[in-house]
Amino acid sequence: MIEAPASASAPPSTGTAAQSSARRRAGRFLVLAVVFVCAACGLVYELELVALASYLIGDSVTQASVVLSVMVFAMGVGSLLAKRLRCRAAVGFGLVEALLALIGGCSALALYASFAWLGGSRHALVAFSLAIGVLIGAEIPLLMTLIQRISRRARQDAGGAVADLFAADYVGALVGGLAFPFLLLPWLGQLTSALLTGAVNAVAGAALVLWLFGRDLTVRERWLLLVANALVLGVLATAAVLVDDFERAARRAVYGEQVRVAVQTPVQEIVVTGSSEGPPDLFLDGRLRISGRDEYRYHQALVHPAMRGPHGRVVILGGGDGLAAREVLRYDDVESVTVVEMDPGVVFLARTDPALARLNGHAYGDRRVRVVHADAFRWLRTEARPGAYDVVISDLPNPGITASAKLYSEEFYGLTARALADGGRLAVHAGPMRARPHTYWTVEATLRAAGFTTRPYDVTGDPTGFAGGPDRSTGRPARAPHDWGLILAAPAAGPGTVPPPLGLATGAPGRDVPTLAALRAGARRAEAARPPRLPSSTLVHPRYGS
């Protein structure tokens, strides 16, 4: 209880009244502080689910929509269910917070475990969004009951009490929303951040109930809360101690036993597998970006057709692994190669990892190569000089409703056309043509809408599915697409402009360069699969699915 009842036989003294008023104010402040903490924790759980699901499943817009919509629905359900607990609001709130701390704190571990050992995490994502949403929804009715109990003693009107509660809730959400990306995620990572948030949540809920409303509880209820919170904190602490071992085991389950490098940069997780002497595999955010066994199929088919014609000045958008640069540098008359890569960590590994550096032919040691760490869209818009490049190689992740969608937009290709010199050419990786034909042909339609003429073609990969190129499947050959859809484009000079010829530069180096017959076969496959014209994708209307 907040205060002991005054004696029935005598009015309280002035000192006693002042002391009681101070206790009520302290109690009200404590309730609002706990509202603030719980709101911050709830938003961290929400953001953590969105971030991890985007990494594990992809398509951040879809994952955010699923998490937010399911959580808001579940919060409504939780508010209705909490009506049954209002008669025992104190112990009900304590148990709700303990359960929320356990489920929210362990949600990232469970989601990652589902991805690593069960092959998917969509069902787990929905289940945790529902459970966390129900518990967050139950908080507000119970807290409102508790703060109204204090407000009646302090003779505060109910409207003012509700306003105070929601103000604390909204400010807490602001703090949690800012703390997750700027403090928790960079300093602790996703798994430990969730565990720490759960511990803070449990301590705050237990402290409020046991300290402020402890006298309202029976002995059995006090012991129930103490034991429940002790168990929750014990589970979270044990998980925090073992989180590194868990992460290593999960990483082995996802990537195999030969994980040599695992780095979390501010942009993405980078993993290199394989022996230092054999061909490496490079994973970015859980997706196989490069397979050392056959990456040449993709990079040679992407680069060499674009090198037919002037190619003294080349820019590679993406391609921080250095493999596209390796192919460009095989032409002695290339004067400069600019690699625009957002993540410095990828370039650092491509320079320093023995297997990756050997695979890219030590491309970054060539004096003609210059690296720019920037977002490709922003760089084209603000730094690329008009007409500065003969060839642009777009070696970017697969298009989708994610951050990469803008890199396959009509506006992006308009900026690319501005950077090309007269007679320049653009080579675009557009995703697997057979597995995702709608996406591939949307890229082609977007290029034409931006004023390019196009020559679609594809190239087949290793039939095992471990084909080295953007966004390959991870360790599940049956699900891996076996082709790369590519497009050679050039700015149209006017109506009726002929698309760029699909061929090879005179004296193209190396016996491994794809033959003209193979390229033309890929072009015939593409033309045979061409659908009716699709609408283009723009910044405000992205048309790529996951």
Computed Rg? 29 Å
DSSP helical segment count: 14
Supply the CATH architecture of the largest domain.
Answer: Up-down Bundle
Quaternary form: single chain
Helix percentage range: 40-55%
> Which regions have little confidence, pLDDT < 50, spanning 5+ residues?
1-10, 463-467, 472-481
What is the assigned CATH homologous superfamily of the largest domain?
A: MFS general substrate transporter like domains
Instruction: Describe the largest sheet.
Output: 7 strands, mixed
CATH topology of the largest domain: Growth Hormone, Chain: A
Helices and strands: which structural class?
Answer: alpha/beta
Percentage beta strand: 5-15%
Q: What is the number of beta strands?
A: 11
Label the overall shape: elongated
CATH class of the largest domain reads Mainly Alpha
Terminal CA distance: 54 Å
Order of helices and strands: HHHHHHEEEEHEHEHHEHEHEHEEH
Record the strand order, biggest sheet.
7-6-5-8-9-11-10
Compute the average pLDDT.
86
- Total domains, how many? 2
3D structure, described in words:
Residues 521-546 are annotated as: Disordered. This protein has 546 residues and is α/β, with parallel strands linked by helices. The chain has helices at 14-57, 60-81, 89-118, 122-154, 158-212, 219-255, 295-303, 323-328, 344-352, 354-359, 376-382, 410-419, 437-449, 516-528, and strands at residues 259-264, 269-273, 281-284, 287-291, 313-318, 336-340, 369-372, 389-395, 420-429, 452-460, 483-491. A seven-stranded mixed β-sheet has the order 7-6-5-8-9-11-10. Strands 1-2-3-4 form a four-stranded antiparallel β-sheet, covered by helices on one side. Helix 12 links the parallel strand 8 and strand 9 (420-429). The radius of gyration is 29 Å and the shape is elongated.
